[in-house]
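pinned: reference chain
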Amino acid sequence: MRALPKKTSKITNLIIEHIKDNLKLYIITSIFLLIGTVLGVIFVNNMNETQNQEIKTYIVEFTNLLKNGSTINNTELLKNSFINNLLLVLLMWLVGSTVIGVPIVIGIVLIRGFCFGYTISSILITFSLGKGILFIIITMLLQNIIFIPCLIALAVSGLKLYQSIMKDKRKENIKIEIFRHTIFCLMILIALAMSSFIEVYISNNLLTLFIQYF
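pinned: its C-alpha coordinates
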Protein backbone atom coordinates (compact mmCIF):
# COMPACT_ATOMS: atom_id res chain seq x y z
CA MET A 1 0.00 0.00 0.00
CA ARG A 2 1.32 3.41 -0.94
CA ALA A 3 2.08 5.74 1.94
CA LEU A 4 0.11 8.96 2.14
CA PRO A 5 2.01 12.09 1.11
CA LYS A 6 3.50 13.82 4.15
CA LYS A 7 1.42 16.95 3.59
CA THR A 8 -1.85 14.98 3.39
CA SER A 9 -0.88 12.94 6.43
CA LYS A 10 -0.09 16.09 8.40
CA ILE A 11 -3.44 17.68 7.55
CA THR A 12 -5.25 14.47 8.52
CA ASN A 13 -3.41 14.36 11.85
CA LEU A 14 -4.28 18.01 12.54
CA ILE A 15 -7.98 17.30 11.87
CA ILE A 16 -7.92 14.24 14.14
CA GLU A 17 -6.19 16.19 16.92
CA HIS A 18 -8.67 19.05 16.57
CA ILE A 19 -11.61 16.66 16.92
CA LYS A 20 -10.02 14.90 19.89
CA ASP A 21 -9.35 18.21 21.66
CA ASN A 22 -12.95 19.35 21.12
CA LEU A 23 -14.73 16.00 21.20
CA LYS A 24 -17.29 17.09 23.80
CA LEU A 25 -18.32 20.10 21.72
CA TYR A 26 -18.54 17.97 18.57
CA ILE A 27 -20.81 15.49 20.35
CA ILE A 28 -23.04 18.23 21.76
CA THR A 29 -23.34 19.97 18.37
CA SER A 30 -24.04 16.68 16.58
CA ILE A 31 -26.82 15.93 19.08
CA PHE A 32 -28.47 19.30 18.39
CA LEU A 33 -28.21 18.66 14.64
CA LEU A 34 -29.84 15.26 15.13
CA ILE A 35 -32.58 16.79 17.28
CA GLY A 36 -33.30 19.34 14.53
CA THR A 37 -33.42 16.55 11.93
CA VAL A 38 -35.83 14.49 14.01
CA LEU A 39 -38.05 17.55 14.54
CA GLY A 40 -38.12 18.12 10.77
CA VAL A 41 -39.20 14.53 10.16
CA ILE A 42 -41.87 14.72 12.89
CA PHE A 43 -43.18 18.01 11.50
CA VAL A 44 -43.71 16.57 8.01
CA ASN A 45 -45.23 13.35 9.32
CA ASN A 46 -47.75 15.32 11.38
CA MET A 47 -48.93 17.63 8.60
CA ASN A 48 -52.47 17.29 7.36
CA GLU A 49 -53.35 15.67 4.04
CA THR A 50 -53.65 19.00 2.22
CA GLN A 51 -50.15 20.08 3.24
CA ASN A 52 -48.75 16.66 2.32
CA GLN A 53 -50.38 16.90 -1.09
CA GLU A 54 -48.86 20.34 -1.68
CA ILE A 55 -45.38 18.95 -0.99
CA LYS A 56 -45.96 15.95 -3.26
CA THR A 57 -47.28 18.18 -6.05
CA TYR A 58 -44.25 20.49 -5.85
CA ILE A 59 -41.72 17.64 -6.01
CA VAL A 60 -43.58 15.73 -8.75
CA GLU A 61 -43.94 18.88 -10.87
CA PHE A 62 -40.21 19.54 -10.50
CA THR A 63 -39.27 16.00 -11.59
CA ASN A 64 -41.76 16.14 -14.48
CA LEU A 65 -40.17 19.33 -15.75
CA LEU A 66 -36.79 17.59 -15.86
CA LYS A 67 -38.32 14.55 -17.56
CA ASN A 68 -39.78 16.82 -20.23
CA GLY A 69 -36.38 18.29 -21.06
CA SER A 70 -36.20 21.36 -18.83
CA THR A 71 -32.66 22.16 -17.73
CA ILE A 72 -31.25 23.49 -14.50
CA ASN A 73 -29.34 26.76 -14.70
CA ASN A 74 -26.09 25.52 -13.18
CA THR A 75 -24.48 28.97 -13.10
CA GLU A 76 -27.36 30.51 -11.20
CA LEU A 77 -27.64 27.52 -8.89
CA LEU A 78 -23.91 27.58 -8.14
CA LYS A 79 -24.07 31.31 -7.38
CA ASN A 80 -27.02 30.86 -5.03
CA SER A 81 -25.44 27.86 -3.31
CA PHE A 82 -22.15 29.67 -2.76
CA ILE A 83 -23.88 32.83 -1.51
CA ASN A 84 -25.93 30.76 0.97
CA ASN A 85 -22.78 29.06 2.24
CA LEU A 86 -20.96 32.39 2.44
CA LEU A 87 -23.80 33.89 4.48
CA LEU A 88 -23.74 30.84 6.75
CA VAL A 89 -20.00 31.24 7.40
CA LEU A 90 -20.32 34.99 7.95
CA LEU A 91 -23.19 34.49 10.38
CA MET A 92 -21.33 31.78 12.27
CA TRP A 93 -18.20 33.95 12.39
CA LEU A 94 -20.17 36.97 13.63
CA VAL A 95 -22.19 35.27 16.34
CA GLY A 96 -19.21 33.13 17.36
CA SER A 97 -17.24 36.29 17.98
CA THR A 98 -19.73 37.59 20.54
CA VAL A 99 -20.41 36.46 24.09
CA ILE A 100 -24.14 36.15 23.37
CA GLY A 101 -23.63 33.95 20.30
CA VAL A 102 -23.93 30.49 21.87
CA PRO A 103 -27.75 30.16 21.69
CA ILE A 104 -27.70 31.58 18.14
CA VAL A 105 -25.04 29.06 17.05
CA ILE A 106 -27.09 26.20 18.51
CA GLY A 107 -30.22 27.66 16.91
CA ILE A 108 -28.59 27.69 13.47
CA VAL A 109 -27.57 24.04 13.88
CA LEU A 110 -31.11 23.12 14.94
CA ILE A 111 -32.66 24.96 11.98
CA ARG A 112 -30.28 23.34 9.51
CA GLY A 113 -31.05 19.95 11.00
CA PHE A 114 -34.78 20.70 10.78
CA CYS A 115 -34.44 21.60 7.08
CA PHE A 116 -32.47 18.42 6.48
CA GLY A 117 -35.11 16.24 8.17
CA TYR A 118 -37.95 18.14 6.47
CA THR A 119 -36.42 17.58 3.03
CA ILE A 120 -35.74 13.88 3.58
CA SER A 121 -39.23 13.23 4.94
CA SER A 122 -40.86 15.22 2.11
CA ILE A 123 -39.05 13.11 -0.49
CA LEU A 124 -39.99 9.85 1.23
CA ILE A 125 -43.71 10.71 1.39
CA THR A 126 -43.65 11.64 -2.31
CA PHE A 127 -41.98 8.54 -3.72
CA SER A 128 -41.98 4.90 -2.69
CA LEU A 129 -39.34 3.98 -0.11
CA GLY A 130 -36.89 2.60 -2.67
CA LYS A 131 -37.24 5.51 -5.09
CA GLY A 132 -37.18 8.00 -2.22
CA ILE A 133 -33.90 6.65 -0.86
CA LEU A 134 -32.40 6.68 -4.38
CA PHE A 135 -33.56 10.28 -4.88
CA ILE A 136 -32.00 11.31 -1.56
CA ILE A 137 -28.71 9.56 -2.39
CA ILE A 138 -28.53 11.20 -5.82
CA THR A 139 -29.55 14.72 -4.83
CA MET A 140 -28.31 15.11 -1.25
CA LEU A 141 -25.68 12.60 -0.21
CA LEU A 142 -22.47 13.76 -1.91
CA GLN A 143 -22.55 17.47 -1.00
CA ASN A 144 -23.78 16.79 2.52
CA ILE A 145 -20.83 14.51 3.20
CA ILE A 146 -18.90 17.79 3.16
CA PHE A 147 -21.59 20.24 4.27
CA ILE A 148 -22.70 18.54 7.51
CA PRO A 149 -19.18 18.14 9.01
CA CYS A 150 -18.44 21.75 8.00
CA LEU A 151 -21.60 23.00 9.71
CA ILE A 152 -20.71 21.11 12.89
CA ALA A 153 -17.10 22.34 12.75
CA LEU A 154 -18.25 25.95 12.33
CA ALA A 155 -20.50 25.65 15.36
CA VAL A 156 -17.73 24.04 17.42
CA SER A 157 -15.31 26.82 16.48
CA GLY A 158 -17.81 29.44 17.65
CA LEU A 159 -18.50 27.60 20.91
CA LYS A 160 -14.78 27.09 21.52
CA LEU A 161 -14.16 30.79 20.96
CA TYR A 162 -16.81 31.64 23.55
CA GLN A 163 -15.23 29.26 26.06
CA SER A 164 -11.77 30.71 25.45
CA ILE A 165 -12.97 34.28 25.94
CA MET A 166 -14.78 33.34 29.15
CA LYS A 167 -11.64 31.65 30.53
CA ASP A 168 -9.30 34.51 29.65
CA LYS A 169 -10.81 37.94 29.01
CA ARG A 170 -7.50 39.68 28.37
CA LYS A 171 -7.62 41.80 25.23
CA GLU A 172 -4.63 40.05 23.63
CA ASN A 173 -6.14 36.61 24.18
CA ILE A 174 -9.45 37.69 22.66
CA LYS A 175 -7.65 39.00 19.56
CA ILE A 176 -5.74 35.74 19.13
CA GLU A 177 -8.83 33.57 19.56
CA ILE A 178 -10.88 35.67 17.12
CA PHE A 179 -8.02 35.46 14.60
CA ARG A 180 -7.97 31.65 14.93
CA HIS A 181 -11.74 31.54 14.57
CA THR A 182 -11.51 33.70 11.43
CA ILE A 183 -8.86 31.49 9.79
CA PHE A 184 -10.88 28.39 10.63
CA CYS A 185 -14.02 29.92 9.11
CA LEU A 186 -12.13 30.74 5.91
CA MET A 187 -10.93 27.15 5.66
CA ILE A 188 -14.49 25.91 6.14
CA LEU A 189 -15.69 28.33 3.44
CA ILE A 190 -13.29 26.70 0.96
CA ALA A 191 -14.67 23.28 1.84
CA LEU A 192 -18.24 24.56 1.48
CA ALA A 193 -17.37 25.95 -1.96
CA MET A 194 -16.38 22.39 -2.90
CA SER A 195 -19.74 21.22 -1.57
CA SER A 196 -21.49 23.75 -3.83
CA PHE A 197 -19.58 22.51 -6.90
CA ILE A 198 -20.47 18.91 -6.07
CA GLU A 199 -24.14 19.81 -5.61
CA VAL A 200 -24.35 21.64 -8.94
CA TYR A 201 -22.09 19.67 -11.25
CA ILE A 202 -22.30 16.13 -9.86
CA SER A 203 -25.56 15.70 -7.94
CA ASN A 204 -27.63 17.61 -10.51
CA ASN A 205 -26.06 15.71 -13.41
CA LEU A 206 -26.82 12.44 -11.62
CA LEU A 207 -30.41 13.57 -11.11
CA THR A 208 -30.73 14.38 -14.83
CA LEU A 209 -29.28 10.97 -15.66
CA PHE A 210 -31.65 9.02 -13.38
CA ILE A 211 -34.72 11.30 -13.58
CA GLN A 212 -36.68 8.84 -15.75
CA TYR A 213 -36.75 6.38 -12.85
CA PHE A 214 -38.88 8.72 -10.71
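why pinned: The mean pLDDT is 87. Residues 25-213 form one domain.
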